[in-house]
């Protein structure tokens, strides 16, 4: 039996398992923080993107789950999907667990610091199905499919201010811009005084 010059293109490529194994490159898995690949991945990667496959659900129904997990920490989002009564929550929960595992193994992102920055829903292929009615009439039903994509990022460490402790980021409340009370200057001249005291 003659072997072709390109076994991967012909029908005989099924039997050339050793040739295929040599061509495949192993994906590096980071499991130890002392590994040099851990520090390299920590510098390179700041986010991880993951997507589910298209499955049978309406995009409108799936968008309710996307709104529920957007902005939350990764572990909290998994808990929300675990106890959600929605039918699609089980698939979303499993995909979040896989994304958490991939973010740690390949991009050295710690699960406790990760959060879902964005979560959105995309439409899949719509399949038509006849809906038969009385007297030979029928209409078309749309069998909808959808998928969910999300961006996972790692929270930055909170800065510490001297003498205050951890800096709290609250709306309208900033330690750095807070002014210290100072007494009024008695010698300051008053120009264009009003009829009433305003100091």
> How much is the average pLDDT?
76
- 3D shape: flat
Structural class of the secondary structure composition? alpha+beta
- Tally of helical segments: 5
Total beta-strand segments:
8
- Estimate the helix proportion, in percent: 25-40%
Distance between the termini: 104 Å
- The CATH topology label of the domain at 30-155 is Ribosomal Protein L22, Chain A
Please compute the radius of gyration using only Cα atoms. 30 Å
H-E order = HHEEHHHEEEEEE
Q: Spans of 5+ residues with little confidence (pLDDT < 50)?
A: 1-27
State the CATH class of the domain at 30-155: Alpha Beta
CATH architecture of the domain at 30-155: Alpha-Beta Complex
CATH homologous superfamily identity of the domain at 30-155: Ribosomal protein L22/L17
Largest sheet: 4 strands, antiparallel
Range of strand content: 15-25%
GO molecular function: structural constituent of ribosome
Protein name: 5849_t:CDS:1
Keywords: Ribonucleoprotein, Ribosomal protein
GO cellular component, one term: mitochondrial large ribosomal subunit
What's the topology here?
Layout: H1 17-23, H2 36-44, E1 47-51, E2 55-56, H3 59-69, H4 74-82, H5 89-107, E3 114-123, E4 127-132, E5 138-143, E6 145-154, E7 160-161, E8 165-166
Antiparallel strand pairs: 1-6, 2-6, 3-6, 4-5, 7-8
Keywords:
199 residues; alpha+beta; Ribosomal Protein L22, Chain A; 4-stranded antiparallel sheet; two-stranded antiparallel ribbon; 5 helices; flat; disordered N terminus; ribonucleoprotein; Ribosomal_uL22_sf; Ribosomal_uL22; ribosomal protein; Ribosomal_uL22_bac/org-type
